[in-house]
Amino acid sequence: MNQSIRGYTLTQWVGAGGMGEVYQAFHADTQRTVAIKLLSRVEQAERFRNEASVQASLRHPHIALVYEFFVEKGLWCLVLEYIEGPTIEQFIQKNGPLTEESAWKVLGQIASALEYLHSRGIVHRDLKAGNIKIARHGKAKLLDFGLARFANSPKLTHQGYLIGTASSMAPEQFSGQSSPASDCWALGVLLYEMLTGQSPFGGSTHSEISRRIQRGDYLAPRKLNPNLSKASERLIDKLLTVSPERRLTAKQVMEALRHPALLEATDWLGPVLKWWDRVKP
């Protein structure tokens, strides 16, 4: 593979997403290895441009950089930081669950990235294990801003069309609503998966997954990993809360990780509210 696009030589196919193909590429003049996302679905051009606009405005150690965006001979190209390493999803498939220490480290890094996004009025809307890579020294990097949007930007989704990955979507997203709290729900799903190796809201059909999510109905993570600390289980519980107003924010997650004792305190009201979420009509 030696195809060249505006000085970038495509060296290796990396994968495919909802909007196009991703390749590893090398730029001889800058001696830089990059990832290039090529749009394959022309009807997604406006969303592709939105991804470039949102991500290019960001500078955070745990968010992949955008270097360039251009259209070359009718081909839409997004040039991104190339991150060597597996996604969390790939890591779990190969190695099983992460250790609690490693999972907390990743969680803290991604919570930091979300707090940065949310403080700028940006919602990612597709946070999941497949969109986070683990680079050298365990450094996590958040990828794929194809569904991200500024709070005041126009919607690019048709009415009634769900966006995101069903198993990581917050209850309110099934009604077309999304907010920073929706990203924090996905953070809870991510932590559950990292610690157990399984999705909290698995199901054989989309409607079954949706029903379980909207009732907050998931198996206690300690039943899958008996060695989990009470703090980890409590943290998951406070993120996978059906009411967006009661979920921890990204900033609160970072604070809880710094002071785990805060999660050990007796919480009488939380279980009652969780029970009500599951039984209310």
Can you summarize this structure?
The protein has two domains: 4-81, Phosphorylase Kinase, domain 1 (2-Layer Sandwich), CATH 3.30.200; 88-275, Transferase(Phosphotransferase), domain 1, CATH 1.10.510. Helix content is 36%, strand content 18%.
Detailed description of the structure:
The chain has a six-stranded antiparallel sheet, covered by helices on one side. A two-stranded antiparallel ribbon has the order 7-10. It has helices spanning 45-56, 88-95, 100-119, 180-196, 206-214, 230-239, 250-258, 261-264, 269-279; strands spanning 4-5, 8-16, 20-27, 32-39, 66-72, 75-81, 122-123, 132-134, 140-142, 149-150. The termini are far apart. It is an alpha+beta fold. Helix 3 runs antiparallel to helix 4, helix 3 (100-119) runs antiparallel to helix 7 and helix 4 runs antiparallel to helix 6 (230-239).
